[in-house]
Structures are given as structure tokens and as C-alpha cells.
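Hi F.,

I've been meaning to write this up properly since the lab meeting, where we talked about keeping a consistent format for the predictions we share between groups. The idea is simple: the sequence comes first, exactly as it goes in, then the C-alpha cells exactly as they come out, then a line or two of notes. No screenshots and no reformatting. I'm using this chain as the first example so we have something concrete to point to.
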Amino acid sequence: MAEPKQLHGLASKLDVNLVTPRGVVAHQDADGLTAPGEEGEFELLPGHVPLLAALRPGVLVIGERTRARYAVSSGYLRVDPAGAVEVLVEQAVLGSEVDVEAARADLKSAEADLAKWGDKEMDGDYKNLRQRADWAQARIAAHAAN
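Output, unedited:
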């Protein structure tokens, strides 16, 4: 891997690698990144300190000037000491490639299944349904942002 370009001792670009279990979805240099963290949305700029953050389903934006928007499911983001950014998620799709009708159908189905739970204890099945609904919402949001 090439060393990041340096500007006054700090990296001038982020080396972003977006990966799912199926392989690399995107690998590019970027001037910034916005991610959907478990505790809220956050932004990374070149020269960021090392970091490990949990991600929730949402929209990942790679780049500040030219933006590539991806729907991502839950996972993790890691900034290593050299400034490389690894985004490891279960699923990811470029916003412009989202099948929005399928995402809306998935959301409707997941919300109907969630409504059946009512006040019951929220176990693993409930959490899986919630993840399914959140992934559908992330795809719809990423598509709308394009």
C-alpha cells in the first residue's frame, strides 16, 4: 500500500477501504468521510488519530468535495496509526445502485413484523427484524441523497 500524501506532517488524504464479507466495495483516496456511528454521525478528516467505532445502518459518505454515498449496514470503522480507514460492514451498496422499490418493500415487511411484537421482550429475533428495517431505511436514504 502506498504511503498517504503528506502535508505539513499530516496526511492530506484518507485511504478509505469499504469492505463486506463478499469483498471490497470501494477503495479510494478521499478528503473526508462521514459515517453513521452507534452514538451518532461523525466525520473524519485527513490526519485523524487512530480510532475504532461501531457503526449502525445508515449512509456512509466518502469525500467532501466529490461525494460517494453508500448505504451501509452495521459494522465497524477503524482508523489505523498510518491514517488508513477500514470500514467493515455486513452489507454496502452505492446509493445510485439501490433498488429503492425493493428497499421500500423490505421496510414495509419488516415494520409489519415489528408491529406484531408489541410489548413483548425484545430478543434476538426482534433485533434481527430491527436490523432489517434499519438496513432498508439506509438504502432508501442513500438513494434519496443522490
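Notes:
Confidence is low (pLDDT under 50) at residues 1-9.
Residues 6-95 form a domain with the ATP Synthase; domain 1 fold (CATH 2.60.15.10).

If this format works for you, I'll send the rest the same way.

G.
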